[in-house]
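Q:
Got a chain?
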Amino acid sequence: MMTPATRKRRGPFDATVKSTRAIRDGRRIVLEIPLIGEMVPAVLLLPETKTCPPAALLLHGYGSRKEQMADSVGRALLASGIASLSIDLPLHGERERSVEIDAVRNPLVLVSQWRAALAECGAALEWMAEHEEVDGHRLALVGYSMGSFIGVMVAARSDHVKALVLAAGGDLPENTPFTRLVRTIADPIRAVRRLGGRPLLMVHGTRDRTVLPEQAKRLFEAAQEPKELRWYETGHWLPDSATRDAAAWLKAKLR
């Protein structure tokens, strides 16, 4: 394994930078980064520090976009001295029109986009690991809803992920006609078992009707220690307190 002294490092302007501005606790950089042959829109938040801070890859939910993660979870992490990279997943945000509407109804297209998302997120972690302004040995992943399903699978495949936060995520729903078929492509239970004891935090709403509490419990029970499951009296949209709790937890784990 390469040491920090021998690893090739990237500067902050290797990607296409669209804008940079100072914000509270640091800088907000809007850019596009090359991932698996695509220029992927992203938001990079860097804290005010002279040393390389830890960082987290932030993955949004279905129908959402990078800004929602950057301006909520990302800002909370920034206040804790943690950098973050939020990206638009395929078919979302600035990439919403990247595939024709009729094609989205094709299951083969959806499968290809799912696999593209996994590959791009893995490449995003590689990009972060080589970035000169973050500590590539202290990377985490935070996924919300759909992003948590993608996140657990990406973390299972990547040694770069040292800690994982899954918000409003869990196992696949049981007793549906498609569950067995979907598990051949995406199986959160199998993925979480491959984390190898890396710290896991799950935050979930007691009244969530999108990803049921039972789904969260199944995924949590399948994971190895150290792990923690925190409940909030809410539905699928978690309160700001959950975001702050996750930021504090990551700060401790990436210390």
Observations:
- The beta strands are 16-23, 26-35, 38-47, 55-59, 83-87, 139-144, 161-167, 200-205, 227-232.
